[in-house]
Every structure is written in structure tokens, then in C-alpha cells.
Amino acid sequence: MRIRFRFTKLGKIRFTSQRDVARMWERALRRARLPLAYTEGFSPRPQLSFGLALPTGAESLAEYLDVALDPVRAAEAGVEVATLPATLNALLPEGIDIEEAVVVERSKDSLQQIVTSCSWTMRLAGLTGEELSDRVDALLAADAVPITRERKGREEIDDLRPSVLALAVSDPESELVADPTGRTVGLVAELSTQPRGVRPVELVRGLIAVSGALPGASLEGTATDGHPGRIPVLDRACRTQQWIERDGLRQEPLLGRVVPAGADRAVHALVRAS
Amino acid sequence: MESLWPRIEPLLAHVTKPARYIGGELGAQRVVHGPDAVSWLLVYPDTYEVGLPNQGLQILYEILNERDDAAAERSYAPWVDMEAAMRSAGVPLFSVENHLAASAFDVVAFNLSAELVYTNVLNLIDLAGVPLHAADRTDDDPVVMAGGHCVFNPEPLADFVDCFVLGDGEEVVSECNAVLASFRTGPARTPGGDRPALLRALSRVPGVYVPSCYDVAYDGTTGRLAGITPRFDDTPARVEKRTITDLGDWPYPRQQLVPLIEVVHDRLNVELFRGCTRGCRFCQAGMITRPVRERPADQVRTMVSAGLERTGYDEVALTSLSSADYSGIEETVTGIIDDPSCSGQVSVSLPSLRVDAFTVGTAAQIQRVRRTGLTFAPEGGTWRMRQVINKLIREEDLYAAVDAAFSQGWKRVKLYFLIGLPTETDEDTLGIVALAKQCVAIGKRYHSSVTVTASVGGFVPKVQTPFQWFGQNTIEELTRKVHLLRDAARPVRGLTIRWHDPKATAAEGIVSRGDRRMGAVVEHVWRNGGTFQEWSEYFDLDLWTDALAASGMTLEDAVYRHRTEDEVLPWDHVSAGLHRDFLWQDWKDALAEHGLPDCRWTPCYDCGACTGYGVEHVVASAVPPAGGSQGTGQDLSSGGQVPVRFLSTAPSGAAPAEVPGGSAVALATEGRG
Fold first, then answer.
1. Between the CA of residue B106 and those of A119, B32, B40, B70, B608, what are the distances in Å?
2. Mean pLDDT of B309-321
3. Are A93 and B260 in contact (CB < 8 Å)?
4. Does the structure's ipTM exceed the value 0.90?
5. Closest-approach residue (CA) in chain A for B261
6. With bands split at pLDDT 50, 70 and 90, how would you rate the model's confidence at B343?
7. How many CB atoms lie within 10 A of CB B611?
8. Which end of chain A is more exposed for a tag (fewer CB within 10 A), N or C?
9. Is A125 helix (H, G, I), strand (E, B) or coil?
10. Taking a contact as any Cβ pair under 8 Å apart, which residues of chain A between 222 and 251 contact chain B?
11. Local structure of A187: helix, strand or coil
């Protein structure tokens, strides 16, 4: 028996890593006394399967977790899926909130394999809305956007462009990007996860690359003096949706709920690029 | 008090492990400050991952927050990247609960578990924006306090810490709070500009040492310490440690912190007992935490089951200085594993296992769920060496324990040893390889491939122990011994030797036994960038030797020199209860290779820890655990020698002669080869 949860990662807890979140879940599931299925061997671990890793520091409205239960003990205990969100939310740290839980069929495809793209909202500092708009246009118009990415500890040049499925400056009124300090500007994007996921910081790297600055220029830090152009710095990022494709339709990974394109949370700002 | 979070948050995108700084642990208190509550910032001067599990700090955190007139938050040393970001953004040291500036607290209290963190203490006081030297602080500054094992020689930090608290903190922390509360009215910490009066009032609390209430005198000709004497009639000449009489009265922590990120000892920890009277002469913890006070078995069970249920951990460590000595340890472990509420998925780990109390039964129990590593600590390579250090475990004990482990399925065993012990010869050093080699051979009987790791540390003589007079081995000598071991172990398949950097051992020695003048050395190291000296990537011996030279000191005098019986020791004015003549007699017994029995199961030899404070051992069983060889009345003959000497019956002639200065020199030659 496999249960799929959708949960958030918001606020201070965004500074924990994917691994940390996994451990929080393990503890919460044990506290809830769920009849977990364990791996075999000398060091049995509960069988948990997370979707695409969320970068440390990013928030999310759409994280997923599959939990395998021991079918015999689950039947005995009479696990009621509908009550699980409330039970577990009381045991999970602040900022991690389960919004939905459903029983899913055991299939061979892991969450990691079936998710094809993710929607993001971001806040960028270091440039105006107009400057950002120019860069978004430049990126969407470009045939290729080479950026440096780290892979297994080595830097390599990769074309970002095919992975950018949608990109737009966000409505400043949108609550997901609202910044009371007025210091930042909002951006929404849909980024492909196949063959490799694109991280928000890599998208920002692409926005720098298309405006003439050198690829791989310092990004994560504060803007340095003497660099050509003004450098956008990623201030906040939030994954708002993860998408799977099924029967030619874009779907939310809790099966049975078909979501047409454009119906995601950042709908008012999202523009399909192609 | 205003939260610094809006200024901290932007820094976190650019540092490693940002969750070190966000708080939010399960068990973290919702701390509300008020005009009538003394505010405490409890600081562990190392990284969050190292500091968070510290049980002493967690116990005080709960006790203080249970009081209406106290409010306690926590802080840890920011890692170097975060510190740089904080300094450049002008963000001071902050608490992890409410992200308040450290300087806004009434008390900033440090846990001192290791000497090499002292430079971090200075760094954190500075990062807090508090004047570094106690003498420069005003009524607006927090009181800087320190507790923990290292405060049994407080002098190297005496210039920087306003008051030290000795021994168990459970009771004294509330007494200190009462004094602080009486001086606190509203926002003014010490009304009337009376910080000296506050410190004097604290110095009258038993167990509290206030350095500014004492005069330090040095000998005009030798330059050595001549004495540390109280400046006031009502200041104690000798500060005695605090001891709680019954651990059962203190079932803390009740709400152990469960961090959001992975930390060391990331598991439920339940303290089985405090104190140890095995009497290992190198072991400071065993000397300064006497007597043995066991937690009642039913309380252990309750704390384990409630703790597992509350935290969701799947591992529990039953902690103490020698967990296998707990009365009924096997039943306790079995009870936890068989508890149906644990779903059969909880593993139990027993740190500090003594080999003579480790049995097949214990081995079988703890490996039922998950087989974690097994570590034994024979400490000395030969029986002679182990008599000197009073770790009276026989080769047969070790082999039986290792056999039990391998027979129960373990394939890896780790052994801890010390080198540079008093009277150590190369035969003793090489005995480490001989023992480990035999352990490999035992393992081969059960498995085709086994690994035995001998982990070798350089011995640092610690204060308030019988070895406090011993001159530490030089770096060169320790290095030579490491090479001896490495060469001897090379042909042995399945044996790995690991060793601690002899340079770090030397630096630890510099601080361990220094007097108040060592404060300038610690400050020099810190001013030259020497933080995180416990971390090999930041440790730099040159900083320490430069600092010694700048203060006109040498490694020879500070570390390698044997102390004499009549020498005034910098820590003579603080006491862990142990009579100085007991320690000296034990030192002489060590040199004469005489063991001393465990007084838990044999008559008292009056070390002072019980008699001086009117306390006693609290143990559930009058007999030692299975397999114990020490003080048990069992046949202890090994190699025709009788290791245990009962002081009451030993003929006086058997005691070794006084060790005069000449012997000390001879020892020095012998000790350093």
C-alpha cells in the first residue's frame, strides 16, 4: 500500500536540506505509529520516496512523498488516509504542511522519473522590473543560452534554453512574490526537469548570460562593483507546482486530478513560451 | 529586545548549512522575556551540530525555562562563513529561538567541554559585542558565566569569564538565578552601578568561583604561581563543586531537543548514571563527577519510552561514563527492545562499554535491531600499563568481549588506546599492536574478513586527577610512538591504526594546566585568527607556540614539565572533592603499578568526593555486573600478579617511596624515551 502526500515547505524551514526533510518525515511517521514497510537487511529503513530534490533555501507549495505501508499491518490497523494530513501535520515542524494524501497504485515509476516540469515563482534583487523584463525577452528570443552548471563536482557548459518552458515577469501584486521592502522584482517560470532539473539559481545565471555578462559570473553573492550590467541576485524562490504528463495532459502528481495548462497557482502571470 | 531575524535571513542564502541558525527544533521553548525574568543565553562554543546534543546545556535550558523568574535561549558558534557574513553585515551573536542579540541577555553562559574551544569562547564574547575582558565590563554588559568539565581549572579563562560554576548544575543554576534576580529591576541589570556587588553575591553561592574576588601572587624568583587567595572574608578560599545527591530527582531533559538538521549523537539520549568510580587515573570525567548515582531503572524505562514516543527517534543511547556497569543493564536493554510500542525498530547503543562487563548477552541484545559499531577502550597495551592507569581489564577480558562481538555477527571492532602515559615503555606501546592483532585473529575464527581499528590518542594530563603532576610527552616522542605503531601494524592484515595529531595534543596540554597568565596566550591565538582549533582544518600549532613565545613561555615549561608535590597548582583553590593527598597517593600507586579497586562494590578509601559533601553512591546492585574483574573478589591473577590492592589491608611497606624531584627527572627521561 502506497500513500502519496503533497506538502509545503515554507518559512524558516526552507533552510533545511532535502535530507533533513526526509528525516523529519521519518520521525513524524514513527510518532504517528503508521505501519511502515521497511527495507530488508542489517539496517532496515522505512520505504520513503521523495520527488525531485528542492534546493536548500527554496520554498515550495508542492512537495511530494510516497510512503509504503506494510499491507498486512495497515489493514489490521485500519489506516484511514483521509485523517493522515491532520494527524501528521501536528507532528511535522512548522512550515511543513500536508495538503493532501491519496492512496496510489504501486507502479514502477518513481516520482523522480515521472515529473516532467516544475513551476516556480522567484524574487530577484539587484535590478528593476523593466531591466528584468528586457532580460526575460532576450532569454526567450535566444536560440541557445549557455550557462555553467556543476555536475558531480565539475563545472560544465550547458544550454539552458530548451529547459525554459515558460518565463514572465510577475505581477507585483501576486502574494507569492510580494516584497514589502520593494527591493525585489518577481518572476514566474516553468522549468523542465528532463533530462536534468534546472535550479532557480541556474535560470538567474541564464538571465545574466543573455545580457552580455559572462556565463558563470558570480550570482549567489551580492552584486560586485565593476561588473558589466546590473546583476540579478536570487532573493527567494518557491516551487509552486510539479507536473507530470499523462495521456498528453499535464497533470498534478496526485493522480486523478487533471489540471489544464495555465490553471496553476501562478496562473495570472504565467505565459507559455512556445 | 528586538529580533535580528530580518538582518540574519539575507545572510543565510550564502552560507553552508543555513539551518544551523534558524532554531525551530522540536522541544525548543517558546521563550517569553519579561521584566521579572532573568534572561540567560546558554552558549555552546562549537558548531550547532556538535553543541546541540549537549545534555548539560539542555538540562539547564529546561530547568531555567520552568522558572517564572528566568528565561533561557541558546546559541552556538557560527561557522567561519557565517561569522564573516555577520561581521561584515554588523550582525552580532544571536540566540536561535528569538534571534535576539547576545548582549541583550542578563547572562551569557558557556559550556566548556574541551580546552581547544577556549579561543571560540573569546571569539563569541567579541562577536556578542561584549568587552572581552571581565575587568572592562560595565553594568550594561551581561554576566559571562561558564560551567562544564573544563572549569576545574578555570584560570586560563579567568580574565574573560565573570564567574565559573563547578559540578552538577541542576541546583546551583537556580541559586545563581535568585541572586541575579535580586539585582535586576526592570531593564537595568545591576542598579546603582553595582556589578562588583553582584559578582560578590554570586561568589557566596556554593560552587561558584568569581576570579575577580581573588588575588593571584607569583614567586618573585621562580616566577611560579605562589597562591590564589580570596580578597574578602566572605569569599571561600577553596570553591567546592556541587553534587546532586540523587539523579532520580532530576529526570531531565524531559523534552530533549530534536534538531531539524543532522547533528552528532542524533538520537534519544538517556543518562543511566552520573559519576564513575572505576578510578581510571587518566580520566578526568571519572574523577570529577564522583560518586556514582544511578537513575532508577523504572525511571530509565519511562524516559526511554516517553522520549521515543515524543521524538520519533529510532535509536536510544543509554549514556554514562561506563554504561555496562549499570545495575541490570541487560534487563534494561532487553526491556527497551521488547517494548511492543517500539515496533521492534528501536536500536540501543551503549557508549563507553567496559570490556570486562561486556557479555555475549549484552552483545546479542544490542545487535537485534541494527548493528552499530562496537568500540572498546583498553587504553593501555600491556597489563603493566593498565595497572599504572588503573584500567584493570585483563587481556582475557578484552578477548572475551571481542569474541562475544564477533560471534554475534560484528565484523568491525574499534579499540581506543592512549600513548604517552606515565612510565610508558616501547614494549607498552607495541603491546597495542599485539592486542589488536590477537583481536583480528579472534575475528577470523568467525568471519573471513574482519577489521580492527586501533584508535590512538596522545595522553594529556588533566587537572584534578592523579596524573595532574605528570609531564606530558613531547610532540616528537608521541610522533615516534605513532610511527612505532604504524610500522608494527603494517604487516597485520585487517588491522588499521588511526591516531590523533600529536600537535593538537600539545596544544590541548598548553591550556589544560595553565595558570591565569595562560589567558594572554589564548587571547593571542584568537587575535591571530585561531578559532575552531578543535577542527583539524583550522588547527594551527604555530599560533600556539607563537603565543607562548609572546608571553615568555615555553612548551617545555607549560606542558612537558613534571610538577612537584609541593608546587602550588593553578587549580588548587577549586575542588572536585578529591583530597590532594588522595590524588598524590594514587599517583604514587600508579608509579608503583598498584591498582585500586572500585569503591562502589568495596570499602571506601576516602577520596573525599562522598565524605566531603555528605553524599553516597546510589546503586541498585551491591555486586558488580557480570564478567567484572575489578574489585570483585574474583581471581584476578594474571601473569602471576595480583592487581588489586585494598588500601585498608596493604602493608605500608608496599607503598612506593615518595617520588622526589630526582625521580621526576628520571621519569621524564623514561616517559619521553
1. 48, 14, 6, 10, 35
2. 93
3. yes
4. no
5. A20
6. low
7. 14
8. C
9. strand
10. 234-235
11. strand
Cell (9 digits) for B132? 572581552
Domains and their CATH numbers in chain A? 2-106 (3.30.70.580), 116-251 (3.30.70.3190)
Specify the long-range contacts of residues B230-238, CB closer than 8 Å, at least 24 apart. Answer: B232/B200, B232/B203, B234/B200, B234/B204, B235/B200, B235/B203, B235/B204, B235/B210, B236/B203, B236/B206, B237/B573, B238/B572, B238/B573, B238/B574, B238/B575
Return the number of CB contacts < 8 Å for A and B: 69
Whats the size of chain A, residue-wise? 274
CB B262 within 8 A of CB B47: no
pLDDT, average across residues B353-361: 69
Closest CA to A244 of A102, A94, A51: A51
Nearest to B371 among A27, A29, A42 (CB): A42
Residue B308 has pLDDT above 80, yes or no: yes
Q: How many angstroms separate the CA atoms of B405 and B410, rounded? A: 6
Q: Quickly tell me which residue has 608494527 as its cell.
A: B488
Q: Report the share of chain B in percent with pLDDT over 70.
A: 88
Band (pLDDT 50/70/90 cuts) for residue B193 is: low
B234, exposed or middle or buried, with CB in 10 Å at 0-12, 13-18, 19+?
exposed
> What grid cell was written down for B505?
595534543
- Exposure string of A188-224, with b = 16+ CB inside 10 Å and e = fewer, is bbbbbbeeebbbbbbbbbbbbbbbebebeeebeeeee
Query: How far is Cα of residue A226 from the mean position of the Cα atoms in its chain?
Result: 33
Instruction: Tell me the residue ranges of DSSP E strands in B188-324.
Output: 208-209, 214-218, 225-230, 239-240, 268-271, 273-274, 293-294, 315-319
> What's the pLDDT band for B366 if we cut at 50, 70, 90?
low
d(CA A99, CA A201): 27
Residue B549: the pLDDT is: 98
Question: Which residues 128-167 of A have a C-beta within 8 angstroms of B?
Answer: none
C-alpha cell read off for B346? 528501536
Could you give the CA distance from residue B365 to residue A105 in angstroms, rounded to a whole number? 38
Residue type at position B21: Y
B192: pLDDT strictly greater than 70: no
Give the residue extent of every domain in chain B. 5-240
B317-349: b (≥16 Cβ within 10 Å) or e: bbbbbbbbbbbebbebbbbbbeeeebeebbbbb
User: Average pLDDT of B437-451?
Assistant: 95
Alpha-carbon torsion (A66, A71, A73, A79), positive or negative:
positive
Chain B contact set for A17 (CB, 8 A) = 19, 261
Report the residue from A24, A42, A44 with minimal CB separation from B260: A24
Q: What is the pTM of this model?
A: 0.90
Report yes or no: A46 and A26 within 8 Å, Cβ to Cβ.
yes
Whether the CB-CB separation of B147 and B112 falls below 8 Å is answered with yes
CB-based contact A267:A168 (threshold 8 Å):
no
| Averaged confidence pLDDT in chain B | 89
**Helix (H), strand (E) at residue A249:** strand A249-251
**Nearest in space to B11 (alpha carbons), one of B94, B68, B103:** B94
Tens-digit pLDDT profile for chain A (274 aa)? Answer: 889 999 999 999 999 999 999 999 999 999 998 999 988 876 778 899 988 899 999 999 999 999 999 988 888 888 889 999 999 999 999 999 999 999 887 765 777 788 999 999 999 988 888 889 999 999 999 999 999 888 788 888 999 999 999 999 988 777 777 777 778 899 999 999 988 889 999 999 899 888 765 444 444 444 443 344 467 888 899 999 999 887 778 888 886 554 444 444 433 333 322 2
Task: Mutate one of B14, B257, B260, B266 to test the A interface: name it (highest A CB count within 10 A).
Answer: B260
Report chain B residues whose CB lies below 8 A from the CB of A123.
none
Question: Taking a C-beta distance cutoff of 8 angstroms, is the pair A234, A124 a contact?
Answer: yes
| Distance separating alpha carbons of residues A122 and B288, to the nearest angstrom | 56
